[in-house]
Design a protein that fits this description.
mainly alpha
Length: 500
């Protein structure tokens, strides 16, 4: 719908991989913390730790329903089953094996589900290319349809996708998601050495580039197939999230009976793995940061963790009703993440990079970041749900459609396909919408972090931080030079010092 400008996120993947391996992994690997948010307690205070953990838990609570909505939408398109009949089944299955399987169960199921997801993606791409003609034809039709776009250098922060919104915005978001995510940091600390942790991050970066390449190319294959007959314009589907399941049905036809089932298995595998990993991570975070301090022993920990998974999984199931009224799946996920990412990025970067920031500055900065991000995201999502902001996508065509469904209004289809051509993607906004709510969804975390850093700097300038009491292991190595030299303990008289 929006072209290949999104593909420039691989630049952000490379940048974040380098930053993480050079600056943050050395700190966290040496500390070997049980909970990532324990770092905030060591650096600032217990209250800051609770605040950071709360923000992360709330984010996952709203993110999981977005993930849960995807397979339900796909199965609805393929079989006609209602969305809200599918989501309870997915939730129950995921809650059961996450609760009773624990980390080992989640790890094995994710490994197997990844195989199904990858096989289904590659199979759909291969058959799609054969239906279109060849890979050359895919790029030919995509170029004619203005889909090939990588260097739209428009500096407008209100444009949906440009080179700058994707690279700058994604870098900020992924710093939070790949450097300061408890589930990711757990992987770094579970390997036997620091060099192994670096390898984990490097291979993660390679994996990100591969997956983005595959999914963006799949989008081009889909556009090429529907280049002369847009299913959204004709009313054959009502939501962008239904395009891929429709595409699978169309290319499978009567010749590949198992393809639709393989695709649905792949979609469900991706959802179950993401939901299980998220529930496992948030359950561990809630237990370590909120419940464990009040427990004398860990004897009841397995039961408590299962109850947490059950409660949170049930809440996520209820929130699916909210998700379906919001915008596209990717945009909703990034928008919700903008609130948490901006806030957590503010906290961790202040702790790791600014030895001058004290607890008061961290609290003021993170609260500012949270409120600013929440206001922008809340306002934009409300206007999107009300239909005041829309993202119709690039130019499409209906000239190749043999006939429109009876329910289609032809004039509406014509208005959609003739509205816009050229680079970029249009954003349709009603006059009463405040300009700030039309900011590109990729910049939410960036704006929140900038606001947080600014307030933290002001508060820190007024309140002083005693640098002599700061543990240098809590800072990235390059910032330790700003700490005063630590006094060498005096030796008792008569002790002999071995200079060797």
């Amino acid at each position: 719908m929006y072209g290949t400008q999104y593909y420039t996120v691989i630049i952000s993947g490379v940048i974040v991989t380098i930053i993480n391996t050079c600056f943050f992994i050395p700190v966290f690997y040496k500390l070997q913390l049980t909970s990532l948010y324990e770092y905030l307690e060591l650096r600032f205070s217990h209250g800051v730790r609770v605040f950071g953990s709360s923000i992360f838990s709330l984010y996952l609570l709203f993110y999981i329903p977005v993930v849960l909505y995807v397979p339900a939408l796909a199965l609805n398109q393929v079989t006609g089953l209602p969305v809200h009949s599918v989501t309870p089944v997915i939730s129950i299955v995921c809650i059961l094996y996450t609760s009773y399987g624990g980390l080992r169960g989640v790890s094995w199921t994710i490994a197997l589900q990844s195989v199904f997801t990858t096989i289904s993606l590659i199979t759909v791409i291969v058959l799609g290319c054969l239906k279109v003609g060849s890979i050359h034809d895919v790029f030919k039709y995509s170029n004619e349809g203005h889909r090939l776009e990588l260097f739209n250098m428009n500096l407008d922060p209100f444009a949906r996708n440009t080179f700058w919104t994707m690279t700058v915005g994604t870098t900020v978001n992924w710093l939070a998601q790949l450097c300061f995510h408890p589930g990711v940091v757990q992987r770094f600390m579970s390997v036997p050495s620091h060099i192994h942790a670096v390898r984990v991050m490097v291979w993660s970066g390679v994996g990100i580039c591969v997956i983005k390449t595959v999914t963006v190319f799949l989008g081009l294959v889909m556009f090429s197939y529907y280049s002369s007959c847009d299913p959204l314009a004709t009313g054959e589907v009502q939501r962008p999230g239904q395009l891929l399941p429709l595409f699978v049905k169309d290319i499978a036809g009567s010749h590949f009976h198992g393809l639709t089932g393989l695709f649905i298995a792949g979609v469900f595998s991706a959802t179950l793995s993401t939901m299980a990993a998220s529930l496992n991570t948030v359950a561990g975070t809630v237990y370590e940061d909120f419940i464990q301090p009040f427990c004398k022993t860990d004897r009841h920990a397995p039961l408590i963790l299962r109850l947490i998974v059950l409660v949170l999984g049930s809440l996520c199931l209820g929130l699916v009703f909210v998700v379906e009224h919001l915008g596209g799946v990717l945009q909703v996920a990034v928008s919700l993440g903008g609130v948490a990412n901006g806030t957590l990025l503010t906290l961790f970067l202040l702790g790791l990079l600014s030895p001058w920031t004290n607890t008061k500055g961290a609290v003021a900065g993170s609260l500012t970041s949270f409120l600013v991000s929440l206001w922008i995201v809340g306002g934009s999502q409300w206007n999107i749900a009300q239909g005041r902001i829309s993202f119709p996508g690039k130019v499409t065509s209906v000239v190749g459609c043999q006939e429109f469904p009876l329910s289609t209004n032809l004039s509406l289809a014509e208005s959609r396909v003739s509205r816009y051509t050229g680079l970029g993607s249009p954003v349709l906004v009603e006059n009463e919408v405040a300009p700030l709510f039309t900011l590109s969804y990729m910049y939410y975390a960036t704006v929140g972090a900038i606001a947080g850093f600014s307030v933290a700097a002001l508060v820190t300038a007024v309140t002083c931080q005693d640098l002599s009491k700061l543990n240098p292991d809590l800072l990235v190595p390059i910032m330790r030079r700003f700490l005063p030299p630590r006094p060498t303990p005096e030796l008792p008289m008569g002790d002999v010092v071995d200079k060797n």
